[in-house]
Structure formats: structure tokens, C-alpha cells
Amino acid sequence: GALEKQVKRMMADPKASSLVTSFAMKWLNIADLDAVKPDPMLFPEFSDQLRRDFSTEAGEFLRSILLEDRSVVDLLNADYTFLNERLARHYGVPGVVGNQFRKVTLTDKERWGLLGKGAVLLRTSHGDRTSPVLRGVWVLDKLMGTPPSPPPPNVATNLDQKAGEVPKTLRARLEQHRQRPVCMQFHGVIDPTGLPLENFDAIGRWRTTDSRANNARIDASTVLPNGTAIDGPLELRNQLASHPAMFAQALTEKLMMYALNRELEYFDMPQVRAVVRAAAKDNYKFSSIVLGIVNTEAFRKQGPSPNATARAAE
């Protein structure tokens, strides 16, 4: 109908790119990559240019899916990305020469989708190490739409290596920390969701051993909260992509909040689920989610802001 034409027209407009910058980058918490400062002693290869490359790659990738109206599930498992020579070398992708970014098909499946992107992997790390906890929280919140409750106050959450101890892998330090019952209920859901990404270091490089724990082998195997045993980022991604409605709903909730400019209430949820069900018939194309939101009662019945009313009265 007419509304559908409007939505298609809006999304073709250059202004629609604000959906990537103002919505998607912020939703995924990768708008502020400066928040993580990799330790130059540990990561001499890291630079501000590389950080900018991470950002450019993420933006181009999001734009190619959201604004070219692909299925939002492609955000999880698209087999291509955008690279220049510096970023390609960082990822170990051969054959990319020069400073300009171009679309590259990735033969290496570990890099597919959001989970293989430097921006995500850096943003969910600390300056001196990876963080399965931050990564697990990110996957649960952004990709599964089930943000965990924050840890209880006064719990020691520092997993740094203790001086004089034999260096242990992060996984071993985590296991020690979560033996406490109060920690277990928090970590029991989060860690299994973040540990599969341990094959990526704090600046998003692929690794099979931990150079800071006497080259111990990285163990990225885990049992997800739903009972599925998986190993590594590829199996994590396949697990997530096999529940497309879950991911589509996580995205729809955040896009609806962006559209309404408020938190969602319990009474909004049936509308969110209806949008997701309708989008399923269209392979979860981004435009079908946008159209669904524009059609909701919540969106159409928004009162004008008090300022607009005041201005009209002048």
C-alpha cells in the first residue's frame, strides 16, 4: 500500500543512513570504540587507524544489510565484509591491496557476521585481555534479547592475573571466580555464551593458543544455557542463526524503542511479537520490520511532544 511505498522511499533516501549511525551502531554498542584502549606493550600492532578501520567495516557491513534490505539474519551470518589492506592483514585475509575499502567474500567462516567483526570483539574486551563476561553479556543482550541482570554489589569482579602466580588462561581464572554461589547464577548463563569467542583476542585477531598463559591451547567449547554443546565462534553463530525469530525480536525491540524514543512497556510486547511474526513471512527483511513498527498502534498513536503542542499554540 501507500505506507509501504513511503517506507521503501524513506529507506532509499540518503538520510536513512542515520539508521546505521544513530540506531544500529549505538544499539550494538560499537559507536564508541575509543572506550577500549589496548595496552601498547601487549598489542604493539594496534593503532588508531586500525580502530577507525574497525568502525568503517562495521558501518559498511550494517549499511549493506539494513539499507540494501536484506534479511536481518544476515547480520549474523553474511559471508562477506568490507576491508582495506590494513584490516585484511590484521584478519589474515590475503589479496587486498590499498587503503580504500571494498566488499570481500570471506572464505574463513569464523569471520562471518557480527561475531567476526573487529569492532565487536574490541568493544567487548578490556585493554589488556579478552572478556568472556563482556562478550557473553553482549551476545545475550544484543543478539538474543535477554540481557542478564547486573552482578550483585560488593562482589570482587577483578580477574587480573595475580603477581607471582603461574599465568592461567582466562577461562581457568573465570572458573575459579564463579565457584562462589552468588557468582554462579550470574556467570552460569553469561560465560558459556562468551567463551566460544575466546579464539579472538582483545583486538579481534584469530588465535588458537594464549600467548600470556604459557601458550596454553584456547578452549572455546561450552554448553549454552539451552543445553546445546558447542565449540568456537562458528558453532555459536550457527546456533544463533538457527533461531532467527529470537534475533529478529531482539532487533525489533531496540528499533521500536528508537522509533518511540522511550523504553518498552509490557503492553508493547504483543505488538513487537506481531511485527516479528509478520516479518518472518518476508524472510525478516529489514523493511518488513520497519514497516511493521510504523504500523503499530504504539507508533501511530504517539502523542505530539509537549513542545510541539506549545509551539502550535503560540
Description:
By secondary structure, this protein is mostly helical. It has helices spanning 2-12, 18-27, 48-66, 74-77, 85-91, 118-123, 132-143, 170-177, 181-194, 232-241, 244-260, 269-280, 286-294, 297-300, 306-313, and strands at 80-83, 102-105, 209-210, 216-217, 221-223, 229-231. The strands form 3 sheets. The chain has a two-stranded antiparallel ribbon. Strands 3-4 form a two-stranded antiparallel sheet. The chain has a two-stranded antiparallel sheet with strand order 5-6. A hairpin with a 5-residue loop joins strand 5 and strand 6 (229-231). The model has no long low-confidence stretch (mean pLDDT 89).
Low-confidence stretches: none
Q: Level of helix content?
A: 40-55%
Q: How many E strands?
A: 6
Query: Major sheet: size, sense and barrel closure?
Result: 2 strands, antiparallel
Put simply, the count of helices is: 15
**Shape, principal axes of CA atoms:** globular
Order of helices and strands: HHHHEHEHHHHEEEEHHHHHH
Mean pLDDT score:
89
Relative strand content: 5-15%
Gap between N and C termini, in Å? 36 Å
Order of strands across the main sheet: 1-2
Strand-pairing-aware structural class? mainly alpha
Rounded to an integer, what's the Rg over CA atoms?
Answer: 21 Å
